[in-house]
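>> Question from a student workshop board

For tomorrow's exercise we were told to take the sequence and the ligand below, predict the bound structure, and bring the output to class. My setup keeps failing. Could a helper post the expected result so I can at least see what it should look like? The ligand is guanosine-5'-diphosphate.
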Amino acid sequence: MRIVVLAGGIGGARFLRGLKQAVEGGEITVVGNTGDDIHLFGLKVCPDLDTVMYTLGGGIHEEQGWGRAEESFSVKAELKAYGVGPEWFGLGDKDFATHIVRTQMLAAGYPLSAVTEALCDRWQPGVRLIPMSDDRVETHVLTEVEGERKAVHFQEYWVKHHATVPAFAIIPVGAETAKPAPGVLEAIAEADVILLPPSNPVVSVGTILAVPGIRQALVAARAPVIGLSPIIGGAPVRGMADKVLEAVGVETSASAVAKHYGSDLLDGWLVDGSDAGAVAEVEAAGIPCRAVPLWMTDVDASAAMAREALAFAEAVRGE
Ligand code: GDP
Ligand code: CA
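>> Workshop helper replied:
Here is what the output should look like for this input. Compare the format with yours to find the bug.
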């Protein structure tokens, strides 16, 4: 079975770990969000791609959900001693090596997709990880900091300001002229099932969908597209999805996110058992919906969610 998953960082990676357990033998292609990418200290950092790669490859800092396990921060401390920032972005020594290799390969002319493949040679994540695009896309947030309205990089909004400053608009800068990376559209066209994991619907999945051609390919795909709600009980499980949903004019609820993706895109939507009351509303919008447990408390729970999504895909395919 060929499965395509559009993934952000932590939520996407945790779901993928469950999916891998649920479908031994399946072929999983992950289209990763690169809108979170940022240049720091002259290095290209791809937080979401690395979170997926480290999580599936066994190198992730488990409790934190991002960065490497057993990490040290000597380089960061040395940079600080030189007065070189930013200090708000935590890059550990082991993690630095990944960004050095990536930046060196990019400078030598390799596209990001080839670089990602090379990095994955080491980590053996057990999935094919493709960036959504080889072209530069950077999510910016229109905000107001100390009375001044300005657009800042998503990482500045999230990591520096912890989403405590207002978000008026989310702009995936560069997306409109970006092309899907080699293999993305082919994987979608050839897939048996396409899954939208509990990733941020605006700054993770939304950014991937903003690359021209990807949404259209999903709508045209013969495979059913099944999404799992990142919103439970009217709130994000973790992160700032509520803030960025508000910025794009979408209510923070499992049903509103489904309608935001749209009935043309979704062939099925899973909401948490506690949101069973939302099923009728989602179905009234033309999207088949089921309520199942959606808390990724451990790998087994994520695997059970993946099995529900695959069974749902089978059911809607048969209709
Ligand atoms: P990313 O969007 O994949 O980069 O990762 P985040 O972890 O930042 O966000 C994931 C999204 O999924 C957030 O909107 C969370 O509310 C949601 N999420 C995180 N953990 C869970 C979970 O256990 N269950 C569900 N249903 N959603 C989750
Ligand atoms: Ca992310």
